[in-house]
Amino acid sequence: MILYFSGTGNSRYTAQAIQKITNDEVVSMNELIKKGIKVSLRSHEPFIFVTPTYGWRIPKVVEAFIQNTDFKGSSHAYFILTCGTDTHNAVHYVRKLCNKKKFDFMGFSTVIMPENYIAMFEVPDKVQAASIIKKALPQILAIGERIKQRQFLHVEKVTIYSRFISRFINPLFYITSVSAKGFYVTNACVGCKKCVDLCPLNNIKMEGNKPSWFGNCTHCMACICACPKEAIEYKNKSKVKPRYYNTGYLQS
User: Fold this and answer.
1) Considering Cα of 81, then 86, then 90, then 91, what sign does the dihedral take?
2) What is the CATH topology of the domain spanning 179-234?
3) In angstroms, what CA-CA distances link 221 with 89, 120, 141, 188, 227?
4) CA distance 229 to 241
5) CATH 3.30.70.20: which residues of the chain?
6) What does the CA dihedral 95, 75, 26, 79 come to, rounded to 10 degrees?
7) Which residues partner with 78 through β-bridges?
8) In the chain, N or C terminus with fewer CB closer than 10 Å?
């Protein structure tokens, strides 16, 4: 079973690409988290978690979902993290999570995909994004082949610097950066409610035919990057930046 969490489509695309090789069932953690109910998942095949990297670890919302979910059947777990540049020491926290859930850790892979964190970084235009995805695809398919053969995914050596980044910068990232207070809409908003539908934490409500953000935000960037009118901004950091949203998938 492949479970993915995705704000702007990178991890969804990666999960779908792996599924083309393994033929496993694909499940959206976004949808399960949005429903807000504890679930039990059973698979006789390994559990394959595909998730973005937030502050150089797996997102807190994903970690909480895994901790609160009953996994039955296979005890094997693979982790694939998408990112713009590096996952640093995210693997350490994945191992700890596997120990808590009594998973047999089957390896960890980093997949470089187009940067999507428009609230802080520069994001690629469509041409640049397509080039990055094209370069990543052979690696993703190779990961799928290794999983299909039940082979362990190679874990890269972690430096002291990477340990520092994931241990200390991650908490600061959540304290200083992860907040919905900076989001707002411009007059281009047509009240389509797509941002409401996409928010995995049900943090966006319509007020007077316009979206309003509340206190439960994970900075997945789904709302701002998928808005069809580019009517959502984040403080003054997103202005004039291209919106990146991966709508691609592999044809059967």
Assistant:
1) positive
2) Alpha-Beta Plaits (3.30.70)
3) 23, 11, 26, 18, 10
4) 14
5) 179-234
6) 20
7) 48
8) C
Residues in contact with 218: Cβ distance below 8 Å, sequence separation at least 6, in sequence order = 54, 59, 60, 61, 178, 200, 201
Which CATH number is 2-173 given? 3.40.50.360
Q: How many CA atoms lie within 13 A of 226 on its CB side?
A: 19
Model pTM score: 0.96
CA-to-CA distance for 69 and 244, rounded, in angstroms?
31
Q: What are 130-160's pLDDT values in tens digits? A: 999 999 999 999 999 999 999 999 988 899 9
Are the beta carbons of 186 and 233 closer than 8 angstroms?
A: yes
Cα 235 to chain center, whole Å?
22
Q: Distance (Å, rounded) from C-alpha 191 to C-alpha 210?
A: 6
Instruction: Write down how long the chain is.
Output: 252
Q: How far apart are CA 243 and CA 245, in angstroms?
A: 7
What tokens were used for 165?
């980044």
**CATH 3.40.50.360 domain range(s) in the chain:** 2-173
CA distances 234 to 14, 173, 190, 194, 205, Å, are: 27, 16, 18, 17, 17
The answer to whether the CB of 106 falls within 8 A of the CB of 3 is no
Neighbours of 219 (CB within 10 A): 23
